[in-house]
Amino acid sequence: MPRSPRASNDLVHHPVFSRAYAALSPLVDVRAGVAAHRRELLAGLSGRVIEIGAGNGLNFAYYPGTVSEVVAIEPERRLRRLAVEAAVRAGVPVDVVPGVAEALPVKSEAFDAAVLSMVLCSVRDVRRSLAELRRVVKPGGELRFFEHGRATGRILATVQRTLDASVWPALFGGCHTARDPLRSITAAGFETVTYRRLRVPESRVPLPASAFVLGTARRPAAGPEDPRSP
Q1: What is the predicted pLDDT for the residue at 1?
Q2: What is the set of domains in the chain, with CATH numbers?
Q3: Of 8, 123, 139, 199, which cross-links 129 as Cys (Cβ 3.0–4.6 Å)?
Q4: Could you tell me if 173 and 116 are in contact, meaning their C-beta atoms sit under 8 angstroms apart?
Q5: Where does the Methyltransferase type domain start and stop, copy by copy (predicted)?
Q6: For position 4, what pLDDT does the model report?
């Protein structure tokens, strides 16, 4: 895979979190209904797709046959090894590549669509990560997102901010609960096509990382006002 000059070797390593995530995420997919949301997230995609923060590759099984190739970026070494194993079982070609969201090791405007699935919470720089996605997606290309973030309720939002400023990121692989993915996607120059808010898992007591947004945005067609830098 050709690498851009901005590619970085500064990858992440969360040995405790990655081990726990690898063990628990398949169970959560089934018991919390996440698998159905993954299927909805990826339905109708076609052409070349880049997935950022592919984790252990749980999305791979849900890519439709109209996708010609998935380039899956994953910085964490343990999760990346598991993603490689999942890629072998996938129904479409999947190439798992080491890299970070802030410096994607791929050419500009090389993809028909991009996928974000529970990753903006943990990237080091949300703005730069989304600028990189805008760089690598073709004008008019899609951005599919399934992200958790800031709750709409005042009390839970306050709890999220408190956790983010204390122990939560250290315990959960750099995750932040109070980021606003929808606002960040719009600020990065993507046009929101459709989205809906949901709670995962559906429980009487909302959890800090249970406020999700699932939707589609689009990179506008190139024009004279098209910003090309972060």
Answers
A1: 39
A2: 15-218 (3.40.50.150)
A3: 123
A4: no
A5: 51-144
A6: 37
